[in-house]
Write a structure and sequence with these properties.
about 300 residues, Tetrahydropterin Synthase, Chain A, 3 domains, 4-stranded antiparallel β-sheet, 3-stranded antiparallel β-sheet
């Protein structure tokens, strides 16, 4: 491992910073302010001794020294502390805080953030153009990585979510009418888990985890939406016809078997075929059939 990699790993290793509560320092600041006011009043009273002359220089410096080190942290907020560009730790204690004035303070929110991606056009595993969008709930878990390992972690989240959507979409077809593959439309839960895993892996380098992830938009692109709709309708009609024919065949078979078993009528092969044809027309026809009453002999 070279020196550059070692430096990056040290910067990415979050640890607690050495900071102090701001309330005791606030008392010191108020005391320095009171001393500065007293010194000014002595000068106005024309009391020029060594204490007043030294105090007019000393107490403003003390006041400035302590006032610069204050900062405030809200709940679920952290401060990355640096010293001349070197990472010194992270302060996650909320309230009024204080550090030495020469230490830098960079606040980072560790709250949950909700991000909804733009609708992007991608190609599924079969090359069909589709439109997709996702919703991601993410939060910073390692402030050092978020600040030092990426330039802008919020922009990094946006880009990596889009890349993850494209990656997952390229692995699966939008729809599979034969029901043999995992599809984007028919297996939203499984694909959502895969997207969550993909986004987590990509955001790990920035010290960010993902709590929730799912699709908010999933559809064919406009240029093929009408054609795919007609295809879905045609395949639905074919599937319905197939189910109808299978049921009709079973009913005809049962009817012929019952007629033969009960000796209701004896049919030769020709009339059996005619009866089967008539029953199939009645059962599979889209319109109501008109019965024809035969008043003559069967033969």
């Amino acid at each position: 491992m070279n020196a550059i990699e070692e430096g990056r790993l040290r910067a990415s290793d979050e640890h607690a910073a050495s900071t102090m509560s701001g309330y005791p320092m606030l008392l010191v600041l108020l005391a320095a302010g009171a001393a500065m006011v007293w010194t000014i009043s002595q000068l106005i009273a024309d009391n020029h001794n060594w204490m007043t002359i030294g105090g007019i220089i000393f107490w403003p410096l003390v006041f400035t020294f302590f006032s610069v080190g204050f900062y405030m942290l809200q709940p679920n907020q952290a401060a990355v502390i640096t010293l001349f560009g070197t990472y010194k730790g992270t302060d996650r204690t909320d309230g009024l805080r204080w550090v030495l004035p020469w230490l830098g303070k960079h606040k980072v929110s560790v709250r949950a953030n909700n991000f909804i991606s733009d609708r992007i056009k991608v190609n599924d595993s079969r090359g069909n153009p589709i439109e997709m969008a996702a919703q991601v709930v993410w939060r910073v878990v390692d402030t050092a990585q978020a600040v030092f390992d990426v330039d802008d972690y919020k922009e990094f989240v946006r880009v990596q979510v889009e890349v993850a959507i494209r990656t997952v979409a390229s692995r699966h077809p939008y729809d599979d009418f034969e029901h043999q593959d995992i599809t984007l439309r028919g297996h939203l839960e499984e694909v959502g888990v895969e997207l969550l895993r993909e986004v987590r892996e990509r955001l790990k380098v920035a010290g960010i985890t993902v709590d929730e992830c799912g699709f908010t938009h999933l559809a064919y692109a406009q240029e093929i939406a009408s054609a795919m709709l007609r295809r879905q309708q045609a395949q639905a009609v074919v599937a319905a016809r197939q189910t109808l024919v299978e049921g009709a065949v079973g009913m005809v078979e049962q009817a012929l078997a019952d007629l033969s078993k009960r000796d209701v009528v004896e049919l030769d092969d020709e009339r059996r075929a005619a009866m089967v044809s008539n029953l199939m027309v009645v059962l599979c026809g889209e319109r109501d059939t008109q019965p024809v009453v035969n008043a003559g002999s069967l033969y």
